[in-house]
């Protein structure tokens, strides 16, 4: 009789433990795959949670307004940007306030705790190039990596930093983020902060064009167009045909 009672108690204990383990595992899985809600974007406070942000560059944006300085933001909205050799600034966006932003969807990221938990189709490549377990973890890893890099506008720039972050997240299931598609992403999908941001981005370019035509004449436009095409050609060529040139 006593042995039967012990057997029943043992069975009940094992069932309770199994139930607890299942519930704990389920809760842990929900925590891993259901990130906490983000605060709203607040340009007045300079907070852009999980956003790519953009601002015009002095001189360069005056000649080619589609080129600017970019950064990426933590989940609390703080901006991180690669702004100089071995320098990633925090909450101090170089070259002025954010003019344009694009909030990204964390559900399109792959944050695997192990090799068997990848949600992307690039498990091996993703692991080989570096993974993260959360959005901010990916940013921290990229910050450490770029703290030892030399800044160069044409080969290793702020766009390279953002691309590295997106590759660590395997954002959108892609491991091919680079300077060109990062620039295109914010250029075609980004939202302007306000009307003044549009003026700040394009007014210098308009003034340069007007002064150039006034002083040099219409050939100035041809020279400006050639400059823009050469610049675009360099980045496209380096990103897609000669990748080792722009590897950072």
TrEMBL record:
<protein>
    <recommendedName>
        <fullName>Protein REVERSION-TO-ETHYLENE SENSITIVITY1</fullName>
    </recommendedName>
</protein>
<dbReference type="Pfam" id="PF05608">
    <property type="entry name" value="RTE1"/>
</dbReference>
<feature type="transmembrane region" description="Helical">
    <location>
        <begin position="224"/>
        <end position="242"/>
    </location>
</feature>
<dbReference type="GO" id="GO:0005783">
    <property type="term" value="C:endoplasmic reticulum"/>
</dbReference>
<keyword id="KW-1133">Transmembrane helix</keyword>
<feature type="transmembrane region" description="Helical">
    <location>
        <begin position="198"/>
        <end position="218"/>
    </location>
</feature>
<dbReference type="GO" id="GO:0005794">
    <property type="term" value="C:Golgi apparatus"/>
</dbReference>
<keyword id="KW-0812">Transmembrane</keyword>
<keyword id="KW-0472">Membrane</keyword>
<dbReference type="GO" id="GO:0009723">
    <property type="term" value="P:response to ethylene"/>
</dbReference>
<dbReference type="InterPro" id="IPR008496">
    <property type="entry name" value="TMEM222/RTE1"/>
</dbReference>
<dbReference type="GO" id="GO:0010104">
    <property type="term" value="P:regulation of ethylene-activated signaling pathway"/>
</dbReference>
């Amino acid at each position: 009789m006593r042995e039967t009672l012990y057997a029943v108690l043992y069975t009940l204990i094992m069932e309770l433990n199994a139930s607890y383990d299942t519930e704990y595992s389920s809760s842990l899985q929900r925590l891993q795959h259901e990130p906490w809600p983000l605060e709203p974007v607040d340009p007045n406070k300079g907070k852009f949670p999980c956003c790519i942000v953009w601002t015009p560059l002095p001189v360069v944006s005056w000649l080619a307004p589609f080129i600017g300085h970019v950064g990426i933001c933590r989940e609390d909205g703080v901006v991180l940007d690669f702004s100089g050799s071995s320098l990633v600034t925090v909450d101090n966006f170089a070259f002025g306030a954010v003019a344009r932003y694009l909030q990204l969807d964390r559900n399109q990221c792959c944050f695997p705790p192990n090799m068997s938990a990848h949600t992307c189709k690039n498990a091996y490549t993703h692991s080989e190039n570096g993974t993260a377990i959360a959005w901010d973890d990916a940013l921290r890893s990229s910050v450490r990596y770029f703290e030892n890099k030399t800044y160069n506008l044409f080969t290793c720039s702020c766009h390279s930093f953002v691309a590295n972050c997106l590759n660590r997240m395997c954002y959108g299931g892609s491991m091919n983020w680079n300077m060109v598609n990062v620039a295109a992403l914010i250029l075609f999908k980004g939202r302007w902060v306000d009307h003044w941001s549009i003026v700040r981005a394009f007014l210098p370019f308009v003034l340069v064009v007007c002064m150039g035509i006034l002083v040099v004449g219409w050939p100035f436009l041809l020279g400006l167009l050639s400059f823009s095409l050469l610049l675009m050609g360099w980045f496209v060529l380096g990103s897609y045909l000669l990748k080792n040139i722009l590897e950072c």
